[in-house]
Amino acid sequence: IAGITQAPTSQILAAGRRMTLRCTQDMRHNAMYWYRQDLGLGLRLIHYSNTAGTTGKGEVPDGYSVSRANTDDFPLTLASAVPSQTSVYFCASSDQGTSGNNEQFFGPGTRLTVL
Amino acid sequence: GQNIDQPTEMTATEGAIVQINCTYQTSGFNGLFWYQQHAGEAPTFLSYNVLDGLEEKGRFSSFLSRSKGYSYLLLKELQMKDSASYLCAVRDWDYQLIWGAGTKLIIKP
Questions:
Q1: How many CA atoms, within 13 angstroms, populate the side-chain half-sphere of residue A5?
Q2: Separation CA B10–CA A115 (nearest Å)
Q3: Which of A9, A72, A98, B6 is deepest in the core (most CB within 10 A)?
Q4: Residue A50: which of A102, A112, A113 has the closest Cα?
């Protein structure tokens, strides 16, 4: 693995179904993020984790949950999918600090369609 | 409230120069980022400004004025591969990024 991987690449899901989007990074970054990207809108933060064992809510957390059992993995779960959750989902990671760049590195994205 | 504004779309000619503006109003400021995103791909980091002034990196430069809540990304010697969306993001008081909707740049031969 080099960088961040996400799975699946794309998925069509029936409304009401449960779905977990997977994200794994091998850069030993302590911070990880989940965003959704919709046409005409900026990236919107769903949930984040500053370090393993902790998570926080972003701008649009409703209907989503996350866990961070270790440094590398940060899965995003939709408990009961709804059509408004149709979007492209990006996972990202960065070093967490209060100085310097700490740019975010992005995974390739998961395109999710909820019917 | 939090707000980041960028033009929705710009068109430029191959070999020319283009400036993409970004204005922001956020509750805090801990740096401004520019990312490039090709259609169907992930955003990739271009530049970071935390102090006023110009940061130059090859054909790309980024400028910041904190007092005006303003930044621009300058692309020189445009190439067809520069056709992409350019995303402006501000790192807020809690070190989370707030993103603009992006500027789609179309390069014509």
A1: 7
A2: 34
A3: B6
A4: A102
